[in-house]
Amino acid sequence: MAIQPIRIFGDPVLRLAAQPVTVFDKELRTLVRDLTETMKEAPGRGLAAPQIGVSLRVFTYHVDGVFGHLINPGLDLSEEEQDGPEGCLSLPGLTFDCKRAYGVVAKGFNEYGDPVTVEGTQLLARCIQHETDHLDGIIFIDRLDREQRKAALRAIREAEWAGDTAPQVRVSPHSTFGRAL
């Protein structure tokens, strides 16, 4: 297990749709452990593989004392919405109110390839939606209204970490196309 550097807003890997996991092996289990350890160290409520430079559809979460992960997630969202504060490890120190579905049913797989269903509301629903967005190349500020987005972009430009991006994406053997993104 190794703590990995977290990619910061502006890194191109954060804007790419991640590839589905097709091989459930020891290396994937190492990725899940690395994501979990990095998330705990940060600390954060969730972390998606693209945030550590791996373009695969994997994320971990830690909500209400429960650690978990989901691979190749698909979401069913409630019609009821919630509005509340949201932050991101790839946007250190910034928080903005973001509208999300109040509830979610997420279906995917665990690190061994077994089917998993995670149901949640409020914070768990927000976390699962946020991390799944990362797998689709979406950052939560993309979901803000126009004025909030302008404020977020201003805050990003003024942040001391602005412009700190990693130079390359780690190539994973799980990638279906076998090249760096």
TrEMBL record:
> What protein name is recorded for this chain?
Peptide deformylase
Q: What Gene3D superfamilies would the database entry show? A: Peptide deformylase
Which reaction is catalysed here? N-terminal N-formyl-L-methionyl-[peptide] + H2O = N-terminal L-methionyl-[peptide] + formate
The gene that this protein is the product of is def
Q: Which Pfam families match?
A: Pep_deformylase
What is the organism of origin for this protein?
A: Streptacidiphilus alkalitolerans
Q: Name one GO molecular function term.
A: methyltransferase activity
Q: What is its EC number?
A: 3.5.1.88
Q: Which family does it belong to?
A: Belongs to the polypeptide deformylase family.
